[in-house]
Batch of 2 targets.
Target 1
Amino acid sequence: MSATKIIHSIPSDPLTGAISVPVYQTSTFIQEAPGVNKGFDYARSNNPTRKVLEDVVAQLEAGHSGFAFSTGLAAIDAVLKLLTHGDEIVAVDDIYGGAYRLFTHVYEKLGVKINYVDTTNPDNVANAISSKTKLIWIESPTNPTLKVSDIQEIAKIAKSIGAYLVVDNTFASPIAQQPLKLGADIVIHSGTKYIGGHSDLVAGLVVTKTPELSEKIKFVQNASGGVLGPWDCFLTIRGIETLELRYKKQCENAFAVAAFLVNHPAVQDVYFPGLVTHKNHEIAKRQQNGLFGGIVSFSLKEDTQEAANQFVTSTNYFKLAESLGGVKSLLCHPPQMTHASVPRERRLQAGIKDSLIRLSCGIEDAEDLITDLSKAFAAVKTTRNYVKQ
Ligand SMILES: *Cc1c(COP(=O)(O)O)cnc(C)c1O
């Protein structure tokens, strides 16, 4: 979707002409007579500020309807509520940790079976499905090793058994990838990340392809009630105004950072789908509109937590924090942070080495980010030499 279209999909206020979207901070709406209203009756069911966000997100993802939730996990939870006892999910094996927790520790207890497979090879998906499979759940690219799955191929498999394909599109953003156009049925986002884009809110979004699915999600949204408040809807809309500009700059910075890391003597592996050496580069190139995202992960030659610790505490512009996608660059050490709850064995199997570091590139100047990383490498080296003496 072009920048022009995105910006002009955000309406001005029809009532007053206000160019920015008003924050309708209200719980209820006056009715002329019972059931006679202006399209809004209670703010859990609907709110005019939320409606603008939901409509804009539906357009961003080329879907039928959008739905805004209090967090990304609340959005995921709403989709899982389409299932019932005995249903099965086939899911990407290095799924977001919070989604893993919800799937395994909440839904499995309720009788939903989850089958985790490496979805970068569609054959693994085809082998894992059964007549009970109702959802195929992928992320592309994944966190933190940026594996890319072929959405079109997996959509065909889902269609063949009448299951829904759900794509967590948080990392690619709708700027790089529109999964519904590639055959997916539902897209979810952690709006906390690129869509919000300023590290100032948590939010979740669902976009559905068909009126039938929209009705189902709308029912769950109203029934369970995990909606996004009007002020955070306003901030998310404001974030979307610059989404294209931010995301492209972040991709550019990530490209420059990845090129720097590949040539650095202290670096072992670099994970970035834009590199021709990345396992899934070809499919990423085809599927992601020439944009490879703003996240770069890498491991150190000295593959220890201590070396990684020294690195992540030696940067200036890259701030040590969970989350990603904001205008300020962040870095984290997944084994001790986002993936601390995953046992070491499982982490190593998923390619998450002890020294793996994840960078979320912001919109600073690429030269400054590279200088920052250079200084951190130098700091690690100095400290390590000192320690060894
Ligand atoms: C952060 C994240 C989520 C969860 O979103 P919250 O807003 O933190 O609840 C889900 N999927 C991915 C890929 C994420 O990065």
Target 2
Amino acid sequence: MSVLGLSSTMQGKTVALLLGVGALTCVSAQTFTRLGACPSLGCVFPPDQASFLAGQYFDVRLEVHAPVNGTEAYNAGVPDQNFTFCIQASDDGDCQDVTTFFSVHDTEVDTYNFTYYEDLFAQDDDTPSVVNVAAKTYRGLALYTPGSYKAKLKYYNDWETVANWYVREPTKEKAAKNVILFIGDGMTQSMITAARLIGHKSINGVYQSLMQMDQMEALGHQMTHSIDSFITDSANSATALYSGKKSTVNALNVYADSSKDPFDDPKFETIAELFRRRTGGPIGMVSTAFITDATPAALCAHTRARDELAAIAYEYLYGPSAYTPDIYWPTSCEGPDVIFGAGAEQFIPGDGSPNGTDFYKAFASEGYQVVYNNTELQAAGNDSKTLGIFCTSNLAKWIDRNVYPENLVGLGNSPSGDGTDALDQPGLKQMTLKAIDILQERSKANDSGWFMMSEAASIDKMMHVLDYDRALGELLELDDTIKATMQHLKDIGEYENTLIVVTADHGHGFDVYGSADTKYLAAQASDRKKRSAIGVYQNSGLSGYTVEADSLPNNATVVYGAEGPNFPVNWAPRYAYVPGVVAFPDHREAYGINKTGPRLPATEGTDGSYEVNPYDQPHGYIINGSLPTDEAQGVHSLTDVSVFANGPGSEAFRGVYNSIDIFFKIADALALGRTSEDY
Ligand SMILES: *[C@@H]1O[C@H](CO)[C@@H](O)[C@H](O)[C@H]1NC(C)=O
Ligand SMILES: *[C@@H]1O[C@H](CO)[C@@H](O)[C@H](O)[C@H]1NC(C)=O
Ligand SMILES: *[C@@H]1O[C@H](CO)[C@@H](O)[C@H](O)[C@H]1NC(C)=O
Ligand SMILES: *[C@@H]1O[C@H](CO)[C@@H](O)[C@H](O)[C@H]1NC(C)=O
Ligand SMILES: *[C@@H]1O[C@H](CO)[C@@H](O)[C@H](O)[C@H]1NC(C)=O
Ligand SMILES: *[C@@H]1O[C@H](CO)[C@@H](O)[C@H](O)[C@H]1NC(C)=O
Ligand SMILES: *[C@@H]1O[C@H](CO)[C@@H](O)[C@H](O)[C@H]1NC(C)=O
Ligand SMILES: *[C@@H]1O[C@H](CO)[C@@H](O)[C@H](O)[C@H]1NC(C)=O
Ligand SMILES: [Zn+2]
């Protein structure tokens, strides 16, 4: 039992003030909850401990549950429809009914049922518990007065769920004009350390150069956990970073409610929506993933289900209320000025695009210039909104673009969907620098400044498939992008005005613990003997990646790949670093770079479970998995992640804090909070 798991249960118990006489047999279920962030039978969203930026929009959702069967069965499965909800603004004040407090009309009670499994036994036996629900939602509210509030749901006569809400005191002095938030998806400090080892030369223990991240003005750590699970995915972690609200795995800027519809869950406003609403300034999203993937999606989309990719593309262009016109939501990104990434599937007319339409055309008819390759990207004007989609799926990895360009051939991944290859793809650096030029030009009209997010998505994607070399290549590309960004900001005179924040959304349990003599490993016959090739402690030796190729003892394995300084000069030294992750499927390991493309460690066996891919690292030894056998890839891990900040407002990023604090720190640097409607 981890400390985090325990404390969330304890919090749950203090939150759920069950004053009823008939004591409820509280199920201690940790992993199969009836509804995350709702341990009692009365649910309040935003839930206990929610923090708000003054003036930030949010919805309120109330649910009363009556389990029909299972260990929580109550009230013969009849939910109380006469629940009340009031808000108390100070300890000695009245608790005012929600309609009075927010001056809104009351809403209708909605009733329905849902099912859930209480534990693995119930799942194996297929005996879900049935829960009847009575629910209400109030949309598009905001709190302006800083301080703490008690939001009280009263139900079943004398039961009460209290949610403590905090409206933080906003900063009124704007520190930064522009903000660029870099996300190294899945990036941990041990990956940064490993990237430094292979990309930067050291003489007798002294590095001759450092990562750009190593040289930022402020360093902090943030905690990545979800609201109802201690391991997060990229949707709810990005939600925390951009909206200041913890949520559930797969959720984008909503609290997950119990209804089926993935678009009706209670929303809250993102930093991108707020920046647009408060400043009118331009916003940008750049990613090496498909652009509707979770990390970019969390800037503008609102849904319980991150895999609703067509809807996410639709919400980028037209906003959430256009997608669900019967659900009121007062704000939107109003079409981000820059959208650069991959994922042509959502734009080419067909199965993946909104209603099967040509979504490139839809963007063009809203005034976007649309570009499809790096040549067009670099030639594009700086004054229009710009959509750049450079291939289907995810962008090619830095290693494949720069070291093994032949791997780009034969993929049939052109953004036009015509089945040709996307051979002229930009990297993170090319996209980010161009995005800055466009945002800068578009911010001139009202001197608004700009906000952008730039994501190195495939650090995570390559860690999932245990392709450590590609993951570190992506990380070095991110660092190179940060360095080039700082120089470019200096060149255009915006360096002193721009807050740069670099962080991750979660980690993978990666580290390096030695080196391997790959030649010796391949020559051994048995799996146990192959492991003798691993050198630990003094036998780990020195990095062969930064040694000049002609000084290597065995230059037959040399693979060049340097694009200027601070990338390895040799990606395949005989003595390779030995990495591992804590979470992996069955696989085979030989510690050499995979030259033919991203690795595929496990494949589906005849019984549907995942086994060693017989074609992967054929000279390696087998490592049995540490995951359930239905997992094909590694998974995310618990670790805190680093935060690096530079420029105006960067001091606020020092120390150890929660992921949600990143939102508040950025919002404060931009002075986006408002203590009244008209201030
Ligand atoms: C709700 O209250 C009304 C009177 O205010 C009562 O008639 C009704 O039976 C109550 N419903 C439930 C489900 O308790
Ligand atoms: C759940 O609701 C459906 C209708 O939406 C109904 O057909 C079904 O009987 C209900 N199940 C239970 C156990 O009440
Ligand atoms: C609850 O009732 C449903 C049928 O309405 C049944 O399928 C399910 O197995 C029951 N669950 C439990 C935990 O008894
Ligand atoms: C699809 O078309 C329907 C009806 O015209 C419209 O209401 C809906 O918003 C469209 N959805 C998308 C994703 O385009
Ligand atoms: C870039 O895209 C344009 C438009 O689709 C095309 O005409 C041009 O040939 C492409 N350039 C390269 C280098 O692929
Ligand atoms: C875009 O802005 C950059 C930086 O100011 C400039 O070098 C470039 O020429 C501009 N491009 C166009 C097409 O105006
Ligand atoms: C690279 O990965 C692919 C997919 O797993 C595999 O077929 C191939 O054998 C690998 N190559 C090496 C050198 O491990
Ligand atoms: C992997 O696990 C299987 C049992 O599932 C066992 O037979 C085999 O010896 C293990 N292999 C290694 C290399 O540990
Ligand atoms: Zn991931």
